[in-house]
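User: structure tokens for this one?
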Amino acid sequence: MTPVWLEPKPLILASQSQVRQALLANAGLSFETIPAAIDERAVQRNSGLTKGDEIAVCLAREKAREVSSRSPGRYVIGADQTLESDGHLFNKPAGRVGAAEHLRVLSGRTHTLHAGVAIVRDGRPLFENVSAAHMTMRDMSEEAIETYLNAAGDAANASVGAYQLEKLGVHLFSRIEGDHFTILGLPLLPLLAFLRGQGLLSL
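Assistant:
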């Protein structure tokens, strides 16, 4: 198979997300994973930013920058996602009780996911992008929430909204507006367009 990524050394993804890894792999990109060693909440606090889109880009950039400092000459991808509803930013739920509370708050409402991505090389940001998706959750009774959490198990605690759309989380929604890749946490089309524009891809 003709390689899509043209550089001799693979990309680096500064994320442990299995979903993001699958998106890059399915796009035929050669990459390795090196998790970023940053305190995301501390970075967010110190940035002084309050908007979900700005925070997503900031965290994506700082993740890529940290890994770049340990990976000279390499192209490093950082990504982050935020969830915002009625001006409130959500963090990943703390266990089942936290997940249930998230779902109660989001039930019957529309919230916004912001997905940020950045590419850094030798500490210098080369590319940044953020995109948004609007997610309308159906009205969820207490019984429906409990049924979902029983079915989803620990996966409900792995994402900020207590759901994974590519899995059982799809049952929670009545309407979705936005790019599929944004919802999964990596704005893939603008990322590929940048890499292509730099002559780094064969397609």
